[in-house]
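User: Can you help me understand a structure? I only have the sequence.
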Amino acid sequence: MESNRAPNNQMALKGVVLVLALIAAGAFVLARGLDDEDDSEPAAAQPTPAATMEAEEIPEPAETPSGDGEAAPTPAPVPEETEEATAPPADEPQETAPAQEEELECRDPSTIGVLVANGTDVRGAAGRLSGELNTANYVTLAPLNATPQVNSAFYYRAGYEVDAQCIARLLGESEKPLFPMPDPPPGGITIDSLGNAYVLILIGPDSLAQRPG
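Assistant: Let's start by predicting it. Here is the structure, written out as tokens:
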């Protein structure tokens, strides 16, 4: 009877071992299946460099701290000056400074001889102008008649141009032309008639002929 139990115990032990082996194999297969399912899940998409750059915020410029530790305020941009801002309005009249007359060094009138000749048909024009100059202490010669003139003019001998200008300014006729004295004198005046006059005034049909007596 004991010989029959020994084989039965061995068979039972083999059966237990086989069952344990089957259980272990099933557990191994089950574990592999779970690992495969985990591995089959798609990996999370990694952000591309371009996406990272687009999403990245540009930092604000750092404020430079001032000497006391506080942030110095950013200076406001200086507006550029334009021609329209600096130019005066087009319709606004511009003031011009009056031109100052050149100061003349006039000789003493009592040392300047002046001859006035009338080149117009206005009677007494040379006499009236001679009297006006004589009142200003100029030495006037006897007035004469000259050939007809188109315009009035002042003639001066060498070295007396400034004195001719002084006489023209005294009469308010600074715009009248001044010429060096030709030889012979103009207007039909002779050298003898000119005498010691340093300035000759030929009256034409203009303002000099219309001066009041």
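Now, to help you interpret it: The domain at 110-210 is CATH 3.30.70.2390 (Alpha-Beta Plaits). DSSP finds six helices and six strands in the chain. Let me know which part you'd like to focus on.
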